[in-house]
Amino acid sequence: MDYLLDKYVFNYVPYEFSDETRKAITNKAMNVFAWADWFCKYQDVHQIYENHTSFLVCELVFFFLCLLTFVHAYRHGHRYMYVWLGILIHALNVENLCYWIPDLDNFWQAQGILTFFGMRAPLYIILGIYHTFDYIAYVFVSRLHLPWWAEGPAVGLGAVMLDMPYDIMGIKLLCPNIFDRMNWVPWNSYYFHASFACSFVWILKAARYFLVQEVYDWKKFGREFLCVFLAGVGAFWGGTIQFALLYHPAHDIFGIHSEYTTVTFLAFFALIVYIADRSNRRPEARAGNPYFFDELSLAVCIHYMFYMMLVLVADPANIVSVGLHQPIGPCNVTQKVQTPTGGMLYKSKYLCIDNYDEKYFDFHCLPANAKLRYEPGDEPLEWYAICGTPFENRAQYIFIIWTICILFGSIFYQWAARSGRTAIVYQFVYRNPRPVKSGWFSGRTQAIEEQAEDDDDVNYENLRYRGGSTAHTHRTPNPITTSSSSTTRIIRSSKKGN
What we know:
By secondary structure, the chain is mainly α. Helix content is 52%, strand content 11%.
């Protein structure tokens, strides 16, 4: 750092610095670089390709799927964009709280191209997984036109259906490294996605009910953002409450296995959705949508087809995952875990190299002289390499991945094509009076007549021109005007399409 500052900074300053000032500037620069290194860490793409090809491809696929969700939100505009931003806030909030709260710090992600917050949150998690799971589920469920109390559970189930193939293949291919499992996937992962996505939708619905109108008004953008901000921040705590209502009493007090609590929780969600759908008499819920194949339908197809192909060609035995993992340390150290029900659990704080039950990775690919064993007095080892293990039964993985993708893909097809169109959000549009045309061949009379024709369809209630004058109020207002002849009215915010 001293060399860089001397060569590129101090030499171009027109006066001399004292040694103490130089040292202070150097220390400040070191602190800035240390913070930047903690905030965002870059990994060489070529190294990831050599050691962890399947993960690199998975990361790029999620970037593309996130782009598709953004294109959909941008094309439909307004509240869909706010939902997209709310899910981003939700991702940042959940990921950081899970890393900063010691009781929740029990999983480590593979190092992506860009990894944030002390190398704990890869970019494909923040701008990828959450939008692929939650945004797609949110839009598809909106086409069912369910009541608010069923929309949240439906979105939670949709998120789980999109998450399941990623979790099963991701664990085996060392994408996340998590420490009751199904194919080494913690059952609570499905409980997590369902409860947090459900809480996001419920809080968003409640906030919009109290803070904004059903019709979108861009002048209330502060309230609109507050709604999605509350949903993004509060979904974590809403999901925690759902854990406390079922999982923690059953698991912590009565010792019921996580498998049963998760299956019961998801079944309860499915029952709510089934009851709401069977009693749904809204005609738009079953109107059908011949133009259902939009950006999100493409994203669902790519997502499922990718894992159907990945399970056929991936070779986990050739994977080397270098990065942050559970620290290797003394075997006899435990950590207290406070549960929401007031109970106290204990877990191993460090990975014991002599006694661990993680058959989806080992250390066979490391050199014989690699030092991984913890010695008393050493610092726990956090950054090291782990090696993938072969499929014990590839046919079993193929069977479950293909079954999941075909069944869940069929459900999403029913939601997309056999339900309604994407929910339309109407908006207020304000404009100045049309300027009078003038020119060699167009007179004032024609312009005034055209403006008068537009005025016949204008909804004047609660509208103001940008110039500040109040609009006329002697006409009887129409609650929602969809005429295409005027732009000073309530119109659909969704553009043509799905």
